[in-house]
Amino acid sequence: MRVAMIGTGYVGLVSGACFADFGHTVTCIDKDASKIEQLKSGGIPIYEPGLDLLVAANVRAGRLFFDTDARQAIREADAVFIGVGTPSRRGDGYADLSYVYSAAEEIAGLVDGFTVVVTKSTVPVGTGDEIEAIFKRVRPDADVAIVSNPEFLREGAAIEDFKRPDRVVVGTEDERAQAVMRELYRPLYLNETPILFTSRRTSELIKYAANAYLALKITYINEMADLCEAVGADVQQVAKGIGLDGRIGGKFLNAGPGYGGSCFPKDTIALVRTARDAGSPVELVETTIKVNDERKRAMARKVIKALGGDVKDKTVGILGLTFKPNTDDMRDAPSLAIVPALQDKGAKIQAFDPEGHEARKLMTGVEFMDDPYAVAAGADVLVIITEWDQFRALDLDRIKLTMNQPVLVDLRNIYKPADMRARGFAYHSIGRA
């Protein structure tokens, strides 16, 4: 089948490359000419493990193309996907749908013959109705089906998630559109992937409901971690004990400095706004947002406490700045709250992240180092914020020798307290004695 993918950001590029790998002919379209030129020359504008190889292979195979001009790709497409950004709108937290609606207007003017127009971007309930209204206004004669097909990709594991998903959700009751969507995802039938067809509004809500629930689960175990510290329990054992219950499951029960990234923060806020507008507030989600925001600031206080309550003129070494490993995404990363809070108390910050290039644009007054050992040198405390693999097997004896004092605050519980004590570290972790 022929696919046009509007947007070459995280969702659009990964989805387009994976559809091409399924055997479809895909053209990824973006108005950013520099980004398209970068893709045409073999560059990748985002960091996602394996994406460079996947894109290159499908370009060579003649299935994946990039263009700034949407006309031909949309006219020839069986399905046009909208994969543009929907950031939180400044001031009120609503999802900014301007890019989605702009893409819809452009598509409406170009479609030729029956075309399935698919919203891949994360959008509030009712967005599909608005897109349908745009088509009726711009091209009342267009033969289209407006479909919701939310993405459930984890940054750092997006290709695996696309090719071996837990489920595919498709919001449409149009039989012709269902047939097109089944053909697009036909390779997944070999893996017996559940494909759930729902109404469009139900599909739109499923995405928000899923992300809000996972955010709530993370926030819950973080609160349990605080309780564990207060009563002398071990949050990792608590998480294991409750995670073995099949009704709960063990995923997203790793205590840490709070969630961040491109999805959970903006999606939970957007869901709260939608629910309030509908007169059905989601108070658990509202509380989750509040508790998570406070947790990031509390992590700075934890570091300060580890140094006896004062970090003025002290050197704090930070390992990991991105919101999670295997991504360069800095959106709502815990480090963006922790680092300024420490600087406000007079700390000097030196930091390293393997892919934290964006951090250099977002953080001021930080000395960026080339490796973990340079970060540790001369530091009064070393803080692990992001659990990159290379931080899991550090030469701790080497680090101890170069630090001003052997204090380590592990916000990801990478190391074992007993081992760290045996090596002579003052070790502080999350939810453990």
Tell me the layout of helices and strands:
Elements lengths: L1 E5 L3 H12 L3 E5 L3 H8 L10 H10 L3 E4 L3 H6 L2 E4 L15 H11 L6 E5 L7 H12 L5 E5 L9 H6 L4 E4 L3 H10 L10 E4 L1 H32 L3 H9 L20 H14 L5 H24 L8 E5 L15 H10 L3 E5 L6 H4 L3 E3 L3 H5 L4 E4 L11 H7 L4 E4 L6 H6 L3 E3 L5
Parallel strand pairs: 1-2, 1-4, 2-3, 4-5, 5-6, 7-8, 9-10, 9-12, 10-11, 12-13, 13-14
Helix pairs in contact: 1-3, 5-6, 9-10, 9-11, 9-12, 11-12, 12-13
User: Which parts are unreliable, with pLDDT below 50 for 5 consecutive residues or more?
Assistant: none
**Which descriptor suits the 3D outline?**
elongated
When the domains are counted, the total is 3
* Main beta sheet: 6 strands, parallel
CATH-level-4 superfamily name of the largest domain: NAD(P)-binding Rossmann-like Domain
Mean pLDDT: 96
**Fraction of residues in helix:** 40-55%
Highest CATH level, the class of the largest domain = Alpha Beta
Number of strands: 14
Number of helices: 17
CA-to-CA gap between the ends? 57 Å
CATH topology of the largest domain: Rossmann fold
Q: Which structural class matches the secondary elements?
A: alpha/beta
Rounded Rg:
23 Å
Strand coverage percent? 5-15%
CATH architecture of the largest domain: 3-Layer(aba) Sandwich
State the strand order across the main sheet. 3-2-1-4-5-6
